[in-house]
């Protein structure tokens, strides 16, 4: 079992535990904000299941129908998670609006808040673990799951603050008002997850910092070549796809040009991890060094 799958299973187990705790807290208090918070935890369970499916599919080796692999399945999962976050926020807004004009006093708020705070602490700790490890493994599904949990944490903190103020002041209107505020924050978080996932599905280039790393690696290991140009990159899950043209002297042998390609590929894989690299070797007259608009990488 892969590390990504282990984390996805951990998210599912934690999601079920937190869902149970928040449901009990909402039932004890009768709070619309805590009920909304519990409602969002149902989405946590659904997204954990989606992440498990996506990671399993992404691990399937390339085949005749998918020669580049199945890594984009994780982006589909992340988009689904973003959509579910938005749906949860809309449900919260609906429930909060219904109670805005007829706020109710809470029942046994102390016990409910204590249980909710425990659930929030569990979510916060696991969210940071998912984001940190998801970035290390370059897993969009795990990172999206972690961000979703952080949105849940923000929701819970806001709800807790609102309920404490409501208890102290007797202004029970704060309960639905706080639910509305945190729902809007969840909408923003869900939109961000969707946009970032769509960029992967649209074959967006790697981030600028990584692109500079790719250029530097090519320049450092392309000794003997004349230049590299037409560099293109994209990413799909943990895999980075890189292709470019490498210009070598016309008299250079196939063996020597292949040695240069091997050096570049080894350097890129050492620095970027899993990568699929395609290098098109061209003779010297294909140089673009004199074309002002061309992006040329010159060997160091």
Automatic annotation (TrEMBL):
GO terms for cellular component: plasma membrane. The keyword Ribosomal protein does not apply. Pfam families: Cation_efflux, ZT_dimer. It is found in: Membrane. It is a multi-pass membrane protein. The chain crosses the membrane at residues 42-61, 73-93, 105-129, 149-171. Residues 209-283 form the Cation efflux protein cytoplasmic domain. GO terms for biological process: intracellular zinc ion homeostasis. InterPro entries: Cation_efflux, Cation_efflux_CTD, Cation_efflux_CTD_sf, Cation_efflux_TM, Cation_efflux_TMD_sf, CDF_Transporter. Keywords: Membrane, Transmembrane, Transmembrane helix, Transport. It comes from the Bacteria. Coiled coil: none annotated. GO terms for molecular function: cadmium ion transmembrane transporter activity; ferrous iron transmembrane transporter activity; zinc efflux antiporter activity. Residues 11-202 form the Cation efflux protein transmembrane domain. Belongs to the cation diffusion facilitator (CDF) transporter (TC 2.A.4) family. This is Cation diffusion facilitator family transporter. It comes from Rhodalgimonas zhirmunskyi. The lineage of its organism: Bacteria, Pseudomonadati, Pseudomonadota, Alphaproteobacteria, Rhodobacterales.
